[in-house]
Task: structure prediction
Amino acid sequence: MIDTAFNYILPRKFYTRPVITVAKELLGKVLVKNEGKIILAGRIVEVEAYDGNIDEASHSFKGKTKRNEVMFNEGGFLYVYFTYGAHFCCNVVAGKKNHGAAVLIRAVEPIYGIDKMIERRFERKLKSEKEIFNLTSGPGKVCKSFGFNKEHSGIDLTGNFIYLLNAPKLQKSKIGVSKRIGISKSVDLPWRFFEIGNPFLSR
DNA sequence: ATCAAGATTACCT
DNA sequence: GGTAATCTTGATA
Result:
């Protein structure tokens, strides 16, 4: 079951805190896309923080542009961008209005609507059981599986279309920390967070 | 108008 | 482990 009183939709307050706090606490929370007939859900297991004030790798570092303007909202909005001519990546905006920070969702553990995710991502059935671990184990893969694209950028995550459900905080001992992946600036910031040992992590 | 870079992925050796 | 694919965006002229 997804919608229980226990698993309430995360409120604005959750998102308007500092981006590093939000990033760590997003681990274990459940990303939901409710298309009505189709409901997709996945448990967040890997994220990266981006903070425009001090982080050259952040899209928001050089200020507001048409592409990144959503990042300057207050926390709790979805920021989706297109990259490498092929992939979308989805982020959760964090912090106060005009700060320009967001958390990249790098990997989720699929938990509901899995057959639909497989259809959208591979356009065929799984070739083997272990291929499930390649379904949502990367930022582009998550977006393909959930059908996220530019149209979804700017959506309010406190609404009832795309949102996050609460879940208990992970134990500190379960949270891994590392440098971020695939960037060429501010490479040493230890702003990647993941659930240690989870089989759905990227690479 | 042109250009370089990119918060990736799939496929090859 | 290495790299081609592919096209949007933002910067510069």
Q: What stands out?
A: The two ends of chain A are 30 Å apart (CA to CA). Chain A has a mean pLDDT of 96. DSSP finds four helices and eight strands in chain A.
